[in-house]
């Protein structure tokens, strides 16, 4: 494995605490690029604060929980334990008071504990990057390769099912990591499916799971009809 580029933080540069942006269905993976349109006041405060510090934000997904929905705070729902920290690598302001940013994935983390609400109204956590520190390294070319033929067939079926134009020709020249990352982040998968992809231990595992999910999405189960 090799270390990433000169602008990428090292393990010692990763923050102990960071703001988090809970957003259902948003998947950020290491070295992936996630564009975000920020308009809610507390998240405008979060971006402004991050730009003045280390530009790092943790992307997390709210955890579905049907048992306590009546008592759940809809503005601050419980979140999955694992997220991915991203660095703001592009930023612009709009005339109507929004921020348009791009987060570039750096490293996954596990939430140790949630911190008191920040003065800007956004949430922050104490995170542990150690279990995922290999995210900072580029995948070795000696690792088990992704099954591209099976992935291509699954993606073509997925696009046909959803009446979308295939993007395989655009993606096929990329390496395995960028191929899997772009498809996983871009396809319309459920929040639970995206969380499962985030937590995959290896690139091969993520590619295999992604292929299976696309195959399932391309052949949805027919609704069952009641019989007398």
From TrEMBL:
* InterPro entries (UniProt xref): Lon_prtase_N, Lon_prtase_N_sf, PUA-like_sf
Span of domain Lon N-terminal: 18-218
One Pfam family matching this protein: LON_substr_bdg
The protein's superkingdom reads: Bacteria
Know the name of this protein? Answer: Peptidase S16
- Species of origin reads Thalassospira permensis NBRC 106175
